Structure formats: C-alpha cells, structure tokens
Amino acid sequence: MKYVAILGLACCTLVPVVSFAQAERVLKPEEINERALVDLLSPEATVAPAARKTRAISVTRDESSLPAAKPAAASLLIIFETNSASLTPKGKQSLDVVGRALNSEKLTAYKFAIEGHSDPRGGEDYNLRLSQARAESVVGYLEQSHQIEPARLKPVGKGPTQLLNPARPEAPENRRVTIKRLDN
C-alpha cells in the first residue's frame, strides 16, 4: 500500500481553487508541468494587483485596503512509500519536473522552504519526525538529482498542524510537502 504526500506551493490566482481549509488546489502527477511551476513560483506571481502594469486608466486607491499578495506557490501530489520518507518512482517523476523548474532562469536566484506535513494518525511526535524526514527526502532528491545547491532548500517538519482537509484528517492532501519561495 502506498501513501500520498502533497508538495504544496500556493498561488491561488493562477490555479483553480478547491474547497479545502486553505483553498489550495492540488495538482496530481499527470497535471504537473514545468512551465506552470515556473509561472507559479516566479516573482511575478506575487505582485499585488494594484502594482501590476495594465493599459487601463489609473485610479488612486488606498493600498492598505487591498489584500496582501500570497506567497508564490503550487500544490503538488508527491507519492511516498507507506509510513516512510522513501519516494516512489511516481514521486521522483513529479520531483523531476520540480527540479527542472527550480533550475530555470527565472527561479535560480531564489531559496525555498520545503515544509513536510502529515495527517494526525500515528501520534504527534511520530508525525513530526515523518514530516521532517519527508521534507529532507525531497531536498535530498532535488540536490542529488538536479544539482540544486543545498543553501537554496530548507527542510522543515510541520507534522499534523496545518491540515488542508480537516473534515477528513486521513485524506491524502493532508500528507504533503509544501514548497514556498523565500523572498529574503
């Protein structure tokens, strides 16, 4: 039996929304492509609507009333072995697309946090260790297979603290890895 984890990066303006707790759409392996990931993770993905250049007439408005730009992100389904941080061949295939995107000209100057998440089954301590191990597994694969510099990727275990689908704690989307572009 295989468990599924989700590699999450959230930029809801470019991806249709699903009705999970944090309104992230999760791309399945067959939906993942390099161009979309580059677009979702590039600096242009987080430009606030008022700051975007348009051909429309400019109207002065209070910028403080506008919603803050979301971090550049995309949610991806990554498959691990059951109760393990070992990637399946399908999980590696998905990360190969991620690796190519992170090595693209638009993204090579950026660092990324790799956050491991889990569902609540199995206990909090166990899940915290498993989520950290899965984040480290993703980082290790991207470093080794795609020569991404270790300084660009930071693994962080979150455990079961941020469920995407709290109505179904055992749902696959709760066992994910989230990649967030760090802008500092």
UniProtKB/TrEMBL annotation:
Gene3D superfamilies: OmpA-like domain. This is OmpA/MotB domain protein. Residues 67-184 form the OmpA-like domain. Keywords: Cell outer membrane, Membrane, Signal. Transmembrane segments: none annotated. It is found in: Cell outer membrane. GO terms for cellular component: cell outer membrane. PANTHER family: LIPOPROTEIN YIAD-RELATED, STATOR ELEMENT OF FLAGELLAR MOTOR COMPLEX. Pfam families: OmpA (PF00691). It comes from the Bacteria. Residues 1-23 form the signal peptide. Its main location: membrane. Residues 153-172 are annotated as: Disordered.
